[in-house]
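F.,

This is the one I mentioned.
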């Protein structure tokens, strides 16, 4: 029998009247990869924060390798061999990869600062140890792609975890989990335990042995994954039998109006790109990492200015140089970015304030913004994404990742835009929240509007899209109609192996 690494007994955490955790207990053993499953808001993030030293439990106790464990900070947790790769990346964007990897001990010397070359040399050793060969230690973090930043966040945790590694949605931004799984297996071979939090049950089954399911802040059960099917796990997570995540996809009429028309767009990695979006359709976009999809979406959303090309919105030429201009152009484009915490939400404002920002005039009187008016203005949009009214008065930074995403989507809806441009809108959220997002997308286009969305999950693209575009090398190389959509076909085109699929869009 393997030795216990972590033992948590009856952990509870309250934030005022809100109970985030209630009597949660679990055991993780040496060399085990143990999954934590549950919907957004089930208490997973609070559990991670307690184990990582970010917050302290109100009651309950923990032991680590048989000794009492109650860290007061992330540094204290690391000193005891517990390291976390957080879902909301904790890297400092204006520092180098090397400096981020070695923080808070970026200097190995006691009496004077360590030279930059020495820091980079030590960081290079860390990167080699964890098989990162394509990211330089002197690269500035803010210049990296989201997937690269995710790998650096994980690598930092790997390098500090001598007893327990905590991974919170680690593959949400990774195009391929293969590298991560290889490192996990290397770590567990040394006897280190891993807590793995993910909404992707396929990954969980591949890498984990047991799972503890949380619901409404409580432990439902700990199960051997070989003895329970996905329907059983879902029922434990949500308290009911599973429903189909995908309804019948919508298909635009052939004579539907074109809402957005893009010709010869050049921006970042995007080269001479053409596309059109019709009323009543959900247009998916598939692409491997770094093929220009970020540049395309940010240009359409007004976050970056194209160097060349023409964008028509509602039949009017649009000069998209800012998100405000994008919303005012023709029928309006609302953009939901990939990183909700750094590019989307205002963490110190309430959910209602975040949602009502585009309509702030309706929530104010004589220049004063009233919380009651904000809640009233934001309530309808919140209901369209199934965001509970009780969360409207909460600071959005205290909400789960799934509820934060609902806030962002509600804010996009409240603008009245005729086109939504969504970058991986269901990334890192639970099954129930995904269903709410999918339902919102279908209802939105049913009103004669249009959506362009990118997803890192091919199954979403196949089941949700009216048709699906594929990008490769900064260009649209395929426009696959609904009747011909398969994961295999999208994957082939995304690798540039199906040039015969190229059609005009």
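My design for it:
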């Amino acid at each position: 029998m393997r030795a216990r690494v972590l033992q948590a007994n009856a952990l509870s955490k309250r934030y005022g009247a809100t109970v985030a955790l209630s009597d949660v207990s679990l055991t993780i053993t040496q060399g085990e990869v143990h999954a934590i499953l549950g919907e957004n808001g089930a208490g997973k993030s609070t559990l991670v924060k307690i184990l990582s030293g970010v917050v302290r439990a109100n009651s309950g106790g923990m032991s680590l390798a048989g000794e009492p464990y109650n860290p007061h900070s992330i540094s204290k947790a690391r000193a005891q061999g517990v390291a976390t790769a957080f879902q909301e990346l904790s890297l400092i964007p204006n520092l180098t990869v090397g400096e981020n990897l070695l923080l808070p001990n970026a200097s190995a010397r006691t009496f004077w600062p360590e030279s930059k070359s020495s820091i980079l040399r030590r960081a290079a050793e860390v990167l080699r140890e964890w098989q990162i060969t394509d990211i330089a230690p002197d690269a500035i973090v803010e210049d990296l792609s989201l997937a690269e930043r995710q790998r650096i966040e994980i690598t930092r945790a790997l390098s500090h975890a001598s007893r327990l590694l905590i991974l919170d949605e680690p593959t949400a931004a990774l195009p391929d989990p293969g590298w991560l799984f290889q490192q996990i297996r290397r770590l567990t071979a040394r006897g280190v335990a891993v807590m793995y939090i993910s909404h992707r049950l396929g990954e969980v089954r591949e890498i984990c042995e047991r799972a503890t399911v949380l619901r409404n802040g409580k432990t439902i059960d700990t199960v051997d994954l070989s003895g329970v099917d996905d329907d059983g796990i879902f029922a434990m997570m949500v308290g009911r039998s599973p429903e189909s995540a995908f309804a019948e996809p919508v298909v635009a009429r052939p004579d539907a109006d074109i809402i957005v028309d893009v010709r010869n767009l050049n921006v970042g990695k995007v080269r001479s790109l053409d596309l059109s979006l019709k009323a009543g359709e959900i247009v998916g976009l598939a692409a491997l990492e770094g093929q220009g999809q970020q540049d395309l979406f940010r240009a359409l959303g007004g976050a970056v200015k194209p160097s060349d090309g023409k964008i028509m919105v509602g039949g009017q030429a649009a000069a998209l140089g800012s998100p405000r201009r994008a919303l005012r152009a023709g029928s309006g484009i609302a953009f939901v970015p990939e990183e909700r915490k750094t590019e989307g939400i205002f963490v110190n404002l309430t959910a209602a304030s975040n949602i009502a920002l585009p309509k702030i005039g309706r929530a104010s009187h004589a220049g004063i913004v009233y919380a009651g008016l904000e809640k009233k203005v934001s309530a309808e949009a919140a209901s369209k994404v199934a965001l509970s009214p009780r969360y409207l008065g909460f600071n959005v930074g205290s909400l789960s990742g799934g509820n934060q995403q609902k806030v962002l989507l509600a804010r996009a809806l409240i603008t009245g835009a005729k086109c939504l441009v969504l970058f991986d809108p269901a990334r890192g959220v639970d099954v129930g929240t995904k269903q709410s997002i999918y339902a919102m997308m279908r209802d939105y286009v049913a009103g004669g509007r249009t959506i362009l969305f990118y997803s890192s999950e091919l199954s979403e693209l196949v089941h949700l899209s009216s048709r699906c575009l594929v990008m490769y090398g900064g260009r649209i190389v395929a426009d696959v109609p609904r009747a011909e959509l398969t994961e295999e076909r999208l994957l082939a085109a995304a690798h540039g192996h199906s040039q015969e699929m190229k059609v005009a869009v």
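Residues 347-405 form one domain.

Talk soon.
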